[in-house]
Design brief:
The chain is about 35% helix and about 25% strand. It has 16 helices and 20 strands. The protein has three domains: about 140 residues, OB fold (Dihydrolipoamide Acetyltransferase, E2P) (Beta Barrel); about 260 residues, 2-Layer Sandwich (BirA Bifunctional Protein, domain 2), CATH 3.30.930.10; about 45 residues, no CATH class. It is α+β, with helices and mostly antiparallel strands and about 500 residues long. The structure holds one RNA strand of 72 nucleotides.
RNA sequence: GGGCCUCUAGCUCAACGGCAGAGCAACGGACUCUUAAUCCGCAGGUUCAGGGUUCGAAUCCCUGGGGGCCCA
């Protein structure tokens, strides 16, 4: 790996430190205070009137990255940033000593991690600062940070080198900190309600639980094909057969499909299941869950997504899929049980759908093209056609539809839920129907999972289940337009060999 | 998979057929309360790659690569 001129200059500075017996990468830091704790210390002493000659009496040590550096002759002002904030260092030649001062001037750069010891005071401009008695190197950075005012703008670099994006752009740091709070709030919500967090296989001998194409891999010792899970559903339901009443899992799922602003091949899913529940109860829980999360992030029940104010106060409105499609297109899909017939009606209404599309997918397209864009405020679309939902239980009064709902917020689908199908023979029949779709060329149709049917034969209690796409929820709550902006390291095409030193050509097949 | 856009110094961006430039960062210097510090000086390029058109290409055309947006 060849160093650029700028990197070479910094490497030489690290060497210069070493030559003088100073470690450019010392093993340990001796921080006594975070920047946040230091600011609090000063403010509380100031308020209590215990400052000595307007300085704190206590000597403290801060550690952080140099993010600004202003040299004024025999004085340097610099800001360091740690994980809690920033604080200004005031470094005087007559305080730190001539040799150390020269080191700081000549050998320290923007981006380096340093440690500074001294006491706190306010500058003439009123900024709480550390009057440094010593400043020492913690980590010599060889790469200069991106431009200080504009940050890192290049989207490709922001994704490929997220570390540079994070260190340059406060907004990016904020998005991912919020993401963490969201996930944490979800766990608290479910833990408080007696849900057990579990872990089910990522590598599955048979995939299922959703309509999608899987990633396929191979276990050498077993000499067997495994699939990366596309959903957790069938394993979590097996746990209800085993007697757990409430379980949830927050996990990475993988779907081998295109990448766009709403799809990532690797994404995070929350699924939770509740024995003796049904979709009515699950709707109430979803409303409460989302409200709790919004409250955690925004402190209230409203937020703005892409310019639209959204209010998640329960109860959310509910509308059958049948009504929603009829209202927007005038099409009553129950009057068109034949795919060709429904396709003709859909096209007449202005839908753009390929010839040969199977009936359930036509209904899905009508939903996507005509209904979804209007669903800004939270709403549950309920009662989907049986053909669209092979794992959901039929409505008692209408066996052509199932008890299923999808929550929509901000024009996007954030989840999927049903009263779970627990009749093993019905489930087997649905799998068989899926198999027919598969053979007809629908690559996303589910394979038959006989072990799952066997589990249901032991009996799964009436159950309500929900899946929520965490990434899409985070998009909404951080006002991001692209899924990639809420995923730390989004999947990218590998760069041509020279820069990545890619392993032996593994891109054939 | 298709259409459109994009790739220039470490970073942020100009130059759009006629000498490849600025700001930040760097490097040398002045400055002991600065806040995108200021001031003086200096250096920095395979203009994504390859080919073509042209007296002359970062610029126009073709092929390929990376990325983005829209569509499927």
């Amino acid at each position: 790996m060849e160093l650029s001129d700028l990197q070479e200059i910094r490497r030489a500075k690290a060497e210069a430190l070493r030559d003088r017996g100073i470690a450019p990468y010392p093993t340990r830091a001796e921080r006594t205070h975070t920047t946040k704790a230091a600011l609090e210390l000063f403010t509380s002493e100031e308020e209590a009137g215990t400052l000595h000659d307007s300085h704190t009496g206590e000597t403290i040590t801060l550690a952080g990255r140099i993010v600004s550096f202003r040299h004024m002759g025999k004085t340097v002002f610099a800001h360091i940033r740690d994980g809690f904030g920033e604080l200004q260092l005031y470094i005087r030649k007559d305080v730190v000593g001539e040799a150390a001062y020269t080191d700081i001037l000549k050998l320290f750069d923007l981006g380096d991690f340093v440690q500074a010891t001294g006491d706190l005071f306010r500058t003439k401009m009123g900024e709480i600062s550390l009057r440094a008695r010593s400043v020492t190197m913690l980590t010599k950075a060889l790469n200069a940070p991106p431009e200080k005012w504009h940050g890192l703008q290049d989207v490709e670099l922001r994704y490929r080198q997220r570390y540079a994006d994070l260190l340059a752009n406060a907004e990016t740091r904020k998005v991912f900190a919020t993401r963490s709070r969201i996930v944490s709030a979800i766990r608290h919500f479910l833990d408080d309600r007696g849900y057990l967090e579990v872990e089910t296989p990522v590598l599955q001998p048979l995939y299922g639980g959703a309509a999608a194409r899987p990633f396929t891999t191979h276990h050498n010792t077993l000499d067997q094909t495994f699939y990366l899970r596309i959903a957790d559903e069938l394993y979590l339901k097996r746990l209800l057969v085993g007697g757990f009443e409430r379980v949830y899992e927050i996990s990475k799922d993988f779907r081998n499909e295109g990448i766009d602003r709403n799809h990532s091949p690797e994404f995070t899913m929350l699924e939770f299941y509740q024995a003796y529940g049904d979709y009515e109860q699950m709707m109430e829980i979803v409303e409460q869950l989302i409200s709790a999360v919004v409250k955690e992030v925004y402190g209230g029940s409203t937020f703005v997504y892409q310019g639209n104010e959204i209010d998640v106060t329960p109860p959310w409105s509910r509308k059958t899929l049948w009504d929603a499609i009829r209202e927007r297109t005038g099409i009553d899909y129950t009057e068109h049980p034949d795919a060709d017939d429904l396709l003709a009606a859909a096209r007449k209404a202005g839908a753009d759908i390929e010839t040969g599309t199977v009936w359930p997918r036509i209904v899905d397209e009508l939903l996507k093209q005509f209904v979804r864009p209007h669903l800004l405020q939270p709403i549950f679309l309920i009662d989907y056609p049986l053909e669209l939902s092979p794992l959901a239980k039929r409505k008692p009064d209408d066996p052509t539809h199932v008890e299923r709902f999808q929550p929509y917020i901000g024009g996007g689908e954030v989840g999927n839920a049903f009263t779970e199908l627990n009749d093993p023979m019905d489930q087997l029949q649905r799998f068989i129907e899926q198999q027919k779709d598969r053979e007809a060329g629908d690559e996303e149709a589910m394979p038959i999972d006989e072990d799952f049917v066997n589990a249901l034969m032991y009996g799964m209690p009436p159950t309500g289940g929900v899946g929520i796409g965490i990434d899409r929820l985070v998009m909404l709550l951080t006002d991001q337009a692209t899924l990639r902006d809420v995923i730390l390291f989004p999947a990218m095409r590998r760069l041509p060999a020279s820069s990545t030193e890619a392993g032996s050509g593994d891109d054939d097949q």
